Amino acid sequence: AMLRLRLLTWDVKDTLLRLRQPVGESYAAEARAHGVRVQPEALGQSFREAYGAQSRRFPNYGRGRGLSSQQWWVDVVKQTFRLSGVHEDGVLTLMAENLYRDFCSARNWEVLPGAGETLSRCCQRGFRMGVVSNFDNRLENVLSQCNLRHHFEFVLTSEDVGFAKPDRRIFEEALRLGGVPPEQAAHVGDDYARDYRAARAVGMHGFLLRAAGQGKEPGVPPEHILPTLSHLLALIEK
């Protein structure tokens, strides 16, 4: 039977957009511009460490902890370079501010194959559309720069809402904005726990984007798996 869906909500990172290159490569290029040589692999490792520590200490970009998300990110970037052996304060500040700005633009993000076309077709079919993303407040700008913003009635970020997926409250806010009951809504994302399971927990439908070769998740029926975004409409309209 065809699903009676009226609202589709979308994850962004690795669902609609992905980084053009690994974080370590972007950081290494910025360092080179200041005459600082650091290996991209080392920076990638340092970034994961710095990002993890900052996320545990100040969850959701420091929301409610007196930290702006910009300051949160600037601290992550500086700590990434420090862990890789760069300690000069003036250069650290400059690099951090440049990288914060660069990750706000299409310079560092690209649209995943099939994403633009799938979003257009969903809009043409009359679905209401929104974004539900664990992202900071740069997301509106990133989506605009990548020419995707116009597909969506609303963009909910964890920073703005104050709750991060898998917290049910960010999905409940999306349903309130979309004006539909959960059984008439579906969420599309690439993360089993934060996207698929969390949406299902509030009574929404869920579709899990799973590239070939990624392992099977427990308890996800094959008709909820998207090998690519282009498969979505066929599954909805079965």
TrEMBL record:
Q: From which domain of life does this come?
A: Eukaryota
Which Gene Ontology terms cover its molecular function?
hydrolase activity
Q: Which family does it belong to?
A: Belongs to the HAD-like hydrolase superfamily.
Query: Which Gene3D superfamilies does the protein's record reference?
Result: HAD superfamily/HAD-like, Haloacid dehalogenase-like hydrolase
The UniProt record lists the keyword Hydrolase: yes
The molecule here is called Haloacid dehalogenase-like hydrolase domain-containing protein 3
- Keyword terms of this UniProt record: Hydrolase
Its source organism is Eudyptes chrysocome (Western rockhopper penguin)
| Any one of the GO CC terms | nucleus
One Pfam family linked to the record: Hydrolase
InterPro entries in the cross-refs:
HAD-like_hydrolase_domain, HAD-like_sf, HAD-SF_hydro_IA, HAD-SF_hydro_IA_REG-2-like, HAD-SF_hydro_IA_REG-2-like_cap, HAD_sf
